[in-house]
Specification:
single chain, five-stranded antiparallel β-sheet, globular, 160 residues, 2 helices
């Protein structure tokens, strides 16, 4: 078998194994075409709150930005972690071009720039996980994967 034939078989075996173990979404997510929506995760993604997470849930947060030129109505959109724990954006919530919204894990008063999941537990795993943003019509808009690189680096670990 030629080197290119061996490489093709190896790639096929790897892809098959990844799909078998449920990694298909992670593998193929970056291969889709141009995004339908311009709302994307931006830093900081603070998945590890300072101190005791349960006492500081609002420091656990995800930030999104509308990087497009049109306002996006996010009514019914969802944000979920790798365990599919889900937050649903409120009725009438819209993100203007260039605007940023931060979704906090704890409770508070929603505004145009801050939304509150009002969870009683941590949403984001402190070591690694993913956040997935899904539009109201069920299309995956953006996925953010993260992994803490060291014990002392908090949420400043690797993210993509």
């Amino acid at each position: 078998m030629s080197d290119s034939g061996t490489l093709a078989v190896t790639i096929l075996a790897i892809v098959s194994g990844l799909l078998l173990f449920g990694y298909g979404i992670l593998l193929f997510n970056d291969l889709r075409g141009e995004p339908e929506y311009d709302v994307q995760f931006v830093t900081p993604f603070n998945y590890n709150a300072r101190g005791d997470d349960l006492r500081n849930l609002n420091d656990e947060r995800v930030t999104l930005q509308n990087q497009g030129e049109e306002t996006v109505d996010m009514t019914g959109w969802t944000l979920r972690n790798h365990l599919r724990v889900t937050y649903t954006f409120p009725e009438g919530f819209a993100l203007a071009p260039g605007a940023v919204v931060t979704v906090h894990s704890g409770c508070g008063d929603d505004s145009g720039s801050d939304l509150f999941w009002c969870s009683r537990r941590e949403i984001w795993d402190n070591n690694k996980g993913s956040a997935t943003l899904v539009s109201g019509d069920g299309n995956k808009v953006d996925v953010h994967h993260y992994e803490r690189l060291c014990e002392t680096c908090g949420s400043q670990g690797k993210s993509s």
